[in-house]
Specification:
Aspartate Aminotransferase, domain 1, binds pyridoxal-5'-phosphate, transferase, Putative succinyldiaminopimelate transaminase DapC, kynurenine-oxoglutarate transaminase activity
Amino acid sequence: MSGRPLLNRRLDGLGTTIFAEMSALATATGAINLGQGFPDTDGPESVREAAVRALRDGRGNQYPPGPGVPELRAAIAGHQRRFYGQVHELDPDTDVLVTAGATEAIAASMLAFLEPGDEVIAFEPFYDSYAACVAMAGAKRVPLTLRAPSFRPDLDRLRDLITPRTRLLLLNSPHNPTGMVLTAEERTAIAALAVEHDLLVVTDEVYEHVVFDGDHVPLATLPGMRERTVAISSAGKTFSFTGWKVGWAMGDARLVAAVRTAKQFLTYVSSGPFQYAVAEALRLPDAYFATLTADLRRRRDLLADGLGAAGFQVYRPAGTYFVTTDIAPFGERDAYAFCRALPERCGVVAVPNSVFYDDPEAGRSQVRFAFCKRDDVLKEAADRLRTLGG
Ligand SMILES: *Cc1c(COP(=O)(O)O)cnc(C)c1O
């Protein structure tokens, strides 16, 4: 084995995810965990019961079909038609692939589409698995930096970043962690660039139902996009069952077949009984989705107001579970040091956005808090944080 490092060079520097580190800190200190974005209340009882029923009835206890159970694939296609219209018509047999969460759909897409040396443009701060998946595929990530206070993408800059080596745009809207939601104008401009430069596009839409301001429209529905776009979503955030890991990739049959080729050698299949339950969840009435958004909007405001009162500079998000803040008003500059000390100082865990940037300056003093928690938990966290200012 000589002196060669165990971890290969592609994964060098990826270490432990910040969520594991901060959640361990929450457990060790008993602090309120507003770091990792998982709800502290399970999703609908009817959906939980559907999973129990599937398990008891022996549906999904053995390997389900590779692309996912037909009931779920039909429900996914139905969900796209219901929320995004006929332009997003999908054939459940060829255009839908069920995956082990959105995470596997992202990984399989990168492994399927990228050659070593290819460039992938993605918004920075990145969702943490993007950098790892692009690296595992041997490709190079190229950040399009979203800057406070608006976090709007600079589309002239995007044009400049596209080179002959650019293979793919990996786009996330609503965007974790900044809460930015692409506008109609931005969607149109991005789609035009993708078409002009003949790029593949992978869209991470896991917060499609968590939009407070503006609207969510899948890029795949724009002219010229269908044949180049793989859309990814998941049951985790929409139905508050993040532990079930049921996600999906959607698009033209040839794109989905390529993703399936990689996916079949990662997990092959997963989450058998949960797939049946998620099929039912996707058919919940519109009121479910409206209530989810309204609940989270209230919680966003509760936490954002609390953080403002505690002295943070608050960037109120247009979507997602997260509010990004700046700690500069406290005279502090280092979000990572701040987050490591925060549980001791006041019993709250948050995540430094700085770790999601390649550009160390761009997010150095930004801290992210999750608000997908019970109102009483958010109020208690806000009370604790109010002691910070001194
Ligand atoms: C939570 C999250 C994911 C992962 O989704 P899973 O279905 O849990 O794998 C992917 N992308 C973003 C932006 C997320 O916030």
